[in-house]
Amino acid sequence: MKGVSLIVRPLLRFLGRLLLVLGAAQLVPTAVCIAYSEGTAAFAFVGTALLTVGSGIACVVLGRGGKSSTTELYRREGILIVVAGWVMASAFGALPYILTGTVTNPVDALFESASGFTTTGASILTEIESNGRGILFWRSFTQWLGGMGIIVLFVALLPELGAGARFLYKLEVPGPTAETLHPRVHDTASVLWKLYLLLTAVQTSLLMMAGLDLYDALTHTFSTLSTGGFSPLNASAAGFSPSVHLILIVFMVLAGANFSLYCGLHQRRGWRNLIRDRELRFYLGLLATFSSAIALNLVWSGDYTHVSRAVLDGTFQVVSIVTTTGFATADFDLWPNWSRILLVGLMFVGGCAGSTAGGMKIMRLAIGLKSAAREVKLMFSPSSVVAVFIGDKAVPEPVVRSVVGFIILYFLAFGLGVGLLTAGGVDLETSATASIATLGNIGPGLHAVGPTGNFAGFASFQKLVMVLLMWLGRLEVYAIASLFAMSFWRR
Amino acid sequence: MKQRFAVMGAGEVGFHLARTLSHEGHSVVVIENDSEAGQRVEEELDVQVVPGNGSHVPVLESAKVKSCDLFMAVSSSDESNLAASVLAKRMGAQRSVVRVGVAEDVTTHRRVYEDVFSVDLLLSTQLLSTTRILNHILGHNTLAVEYLARGKVQLRKVHLAKGTVLTRRALRDVEMPAGSLVVAFYRDEELIIPSGDDRAQFGDDALIVCKTEVIDRVERLVSARPSDHGTTVLAGGGQTAHAVLQALSNQVDKLVMIERDRERAEYLAATFPKVQVLNGDATDPSLLRSERIGDARSFVALTGNDERNLMACLLAEELGVGKVIALVQRTETSHLWRKLGLVRIVSPRRIAVERIQNYVRSGYNANIVSLRRGQAQILERTLAPASPAAGCTLAEIKPPRGIIVGAVLRGDRVFVPRGPDRLEVGDTVILFVAEEHVSTVHLLFPGREPTASGAP
Question: Which chain A residues are within 8 Å of B262, Cβ to Cβ?
Answer without folding.
Answer: 385
